[in-house]
Amino acid sequence: MGRERAPTPEWTTHGLGPHAHPWPDDPRLDPELLEHGDTRNVLDRYRYWSMTAIVADLDARRHPFHVAIENWQHDMNIGSIVRSANAFLASEVHIVGRRRWNKRGAMVTDRYQHVRHHETIDDLVAFARDAGLPIVAVDNVPGSVPVDAAPLPHACILLFGQEGPGLSEAALAAADRVIEIRQYGSTRSINASAAAAVVMHEWVRVHAGPGEHPHAPAADADSA
């Protein structure tokens, strides 16, 4: 005779409410979330999982591309870029320049994303060379090539500049390749965080399989 299954928790507007007893026997689950409900902005399969368990699961599946962002002027777009890096499962995010960055747009996704700091572009280049990662700079400058004209490297660092000035001269000089996004309107450039999302999506389009639907069923703790 099979083990008695725990009652199904009730959905709320923003997630799952408190889980009825008996609770599933699963070390990934957080007792506090089971007790009070889980309204975090996470995939349904991660409902009630502890943050540590979610990060461990992401670490086992991360893509080999990294995202680097110059941070000289406390650009508000950085948080949004970190959020996109989490959505597309980047290996790491590298903040170049100021250590403190505007986290508002990240919507706490930085808790699930590895973030590394580099004081200078030279420090980022040293990391890239040690890791064997080519640097792909993204900026619509003379000589740049459309992002869809040739496949992005499988393992690489995608380097983005700031809203307005774009990439620094040092960053452009350090890049192994400079790419741009095709545009058709009157504006000279698109928003930095939007550009980052477009390029990351191009990477996953070429190199990754189908992504997970945000409302995929929660993991069955009794059968895990």
Account of the 3D structure:
The chain is of the alpha/beta class and 224 residues long. The chain has 2 domains: 11-58, no CATH class; 65-207, SPOUT methyltransferase, trefoil knot domain (Alpha/beta knot, 3-Layer(aba) Sandwich), CATH 3.40.1280. Helix content is 26%, strand content 16%. It is built from 6 helices and 9 strands; from the N terminus they run ββααβαββαβββαβα. The protein has helices spanning 31-36, 51-59, 77-87, 121-131, 169-174, 192-207; strands at residues 11-12, 15-16, 65-71, 93-97, 115-118, 135-138, 145-146, 156-160, 177-180. The protein has a 7-stranded parallel β-sheet with strand order 5-4-3-8-6-9-7, with helices on both faces. It is elongated, with a radius of gyration of 20 Å. The two termini are 19 Å apart.
Q: What descriptive keywords fit this protein?
A:
single chain; 224 residues; alpha/beta; Alpha/beta knot; seven-stranded parallel sheet; two-stranded antiparallel ribbon; 6 helices; 16% strand; disordered C terminus
Radius of gyration: 20 Å
CATH class of the largest domain: Alpha Beta
Strand order of the largest sheet: 5-4-3-8-6-9-7
CATH topology heading of the largest domain: Alpha/beta knot
> Order of SSEs, N→C?
EEHHEHEEHEEEHEH
Residue share in helix? 25-40%
Per DSSP E runs of 2 or more residues, the count of β-strands stands at 9
CATH homologous superfamily grouping of the largest domain: SPOUT methyltransferase, trefoil knot domain
